[in-house]
Design brief:
about 80 residues, flat, 5 helices, mainly alpha
C-alpha cells in the first residue's frame, strides 16, 4: 500500500475520533497547515518548501487563494453586532 493511501486512512480515522463532522483529508490538512503557517508569519520560502513548490510564485498564488481575511473581518463585525 502506498504511503499516501495510509496517511489518508489515518487522517480519516483521526477526523472521525475527533468528531469533526467532515472527512479529514490530505487536502484539508495541507490547507490548514498552510493557513496556520501564514497566520503565524512563517516565511514564504519556508511555506513554499514545505508544500514542495518549485517556485515561490506558485506559493504566492496558493496563499492568495487562502486569504479570507476580508470575509473573516465581515463575519466578526456581523457576529459582534448580534451580541
Amino acid at each position: 500500500m502506498r504511503m499516501t493511501k495510509k496517511v489518508c486512512r489515518w487522517l480519516k480515522a483521526v477526523g472521525e475520533k475527533a468528531g469533526l463532522g467532515i472527512d479529514l483529508t490530505l487536502y484539508v490538512a495541507r490547507h490548514s497547515w498552510t493557513s496556520i503557517a501564514k497566520q503565524r508569519n512563517h516565511s514564504l520560502r519556508t511555506i513554499s518548501k514545505a508544500l514542495g513548490h518549485s517556485s515561490e510564485r506558485t506559493t504566492q498564488i496558493y496563499l492568495a487563494s487562502l486569504d479570507n481575511s476580508d470575509v473573516d473581518e465581515a463575519n466578526n463585525d456581523i457576529l459582534n453586532g448580534l451580541l
